Amino acid sequence: MSFSEADVQGAMKNLIDPNTRKDFVSGKSVKNIKISGNDVSLDIMLGYPAKSVWDEIRALVEAHLKAALPGAGQVSANVGSKVVQHAVQQGAKLVDGVKNIIVVASGKGGVGKSTTAVNIALALAAEGARVGMLDADIYGPSQPTMLGITGQPETTEDNFLKPITNHGLQAMSIGFLVASEDTPMIWRGPMVTQALDQLLRQTRWDNLDYLIMDLPPGTGDIQLSLAQQAPVTGAVIVTTPQDIALMDARKGLKMFEKVGVKIIGIVENMSTHICTQCGHEEHIFGAGGGEKMCADYHTEFLGGLPLDIRIREQADSGQPTVVSEPDGNIAKVYKQIARRIAVKVAEMAQSHTTVFPKVVVQNT
Question: pLDDT by residue (tens digit) across 126-135?
Answer without folding.
Answer: 999 999 999 9
